[in-house]
Write a structure and sequence with these properties.
9 strands; alpha/beta; Nucleotidyltransferase, domain 5; four-stranded mixed beta sheet; single chain; 3 domains; 179 residues; five-stranded mixed beta sheet
Length: 179
């Protein structure tokens, strides 16, 4: 079975795949040795892993995965991939964005694909039908947007995502939460 790890700035997310089937998933703000031990006791068939790290804990999490699997593939800037890369500064392209584009090319071959990732940052990238990563956009994620509205205005409250979706915000808090 395969472990897929997305080591982000806010969360470490891992998923266990049995072929193409998602068998289990896990997320944590910090992925410790104790958490890895407990997880891999459950994931006894996990023998290969692939990891994309953008967060500061990337090397530590990769080391924990390397200890527990027979093979670990780490996405790194400049590594060979099955897609072409038209990004002008490939050494600065986040490996999470590259990994998503490789996955999109495998899942949707010969199609234009718009890849949207909502994390600490919101990224929107284009993979064209000829299998070329073209680039995209990076924008602040939800936490940064809520923090900016609060910090850079005189009277807006600090909010977070709402549990329910409303067709229209009718209070300042609801307007921010729904925005």
């Amino acid at each position: 079975m395969n472990v897929v790890a997305d080591i982000g700035n806010t969360l470490v997310k891992l998923a266990l795949f049995d072929g193409d089937r998602l068998a289990d998933r896990y997320a944590s703000e910090r992925f410790t040795r104790a958490e890895a031990d407990a997880l891999f006791r459950r994931w006894t068939g996990a023998d290969r892993a692939i990891a994309a790290a953008t967060g500061a804990d990337g090397r530590d999490v990769a080391a924990l995965l390397r200890e527990r699997t027979d093979y670990l593939l780490e996405f790194r800037p400049g590594m060979p991939t099955p897609i072409a890369n038209a990004y002008l500064t490939p050494e600065t392209l986040g490996c999470d964005r590259l990994a998503a584009a490789v996955g999109a090319a495998a899942r949707y071959p010969d199609r234009n694909v718009l890849i949207v990732d909502f994390g600490t940052a919101v990224t929107i990238d284009l993979l064209t039908a000829d299998g070329t990563f073209r680039g995209g956009f990076i924008s602040p994620g939800f936490r940064a947007r809520f923090r900016a509205l609060h910090d850079y205005t005189a009277s807006l409250p600090l909010c977070g995502p709402a549990d329910e979706e409303l067709p229209l915000g009718r209070t300042t808090r609801a307007c921010i939460e729904q925005g």
